[in-house]
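Quick question, first post here. What does this chain look like in 3D?
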Amino acid sequence: MDKSTRCHAVFAAIALSIVTTTACADRGQPPPLNGSFNLFVDFSKQTFNGVATPMDSRTFPVEYTTRCDVNGCVVTMDNSGDVARNPGAPAAFEYRWKNGRWETSGPYPYFCDRMNAASAVKSVRADYLTPKPDGSFFGERTLTVEGAGCPGEGPGVHRVPTTVTPGGK
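> Answer (accepted):
Ran it through. Tokens below.
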């Protein structure tokens, strides 16, 4: 092997190792959520403290944006559409990648009477979204009602399955 051929072989090996390292590093990146999606909240399977409390399920169009920097990635879900109904709700939710899924948690006013803002009690809302190979996500929303809770119900934990699919609006 002449000097030129050896030089090309060494260069190719170095280039391959850089590409291979980069490709492996990319596998650790979480799947982004960008654009319009449909958020299906399966209230028909809702529970409160483990007891079924079914209601009519709903699908909401939502917008997600993913941004990444040296500190990791954050997905923002625009919640401005819910603020008209629930003025105490955050205008956006920020999800962070943990345990192989997107997770968010924070204070959220829970309405004891679903359409009456005056019935709100303190709660903590936590959502997670786990990616599926088809580009959709499945998860769960948990609302932990604090203090005295709702009349006739008290404090406790609401759980409801969710699904996020591309193509909202």
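The two ends are 62 Å apart (CA to CA).
Residues 85 and 96 are 26 Å apart (CA to CA).
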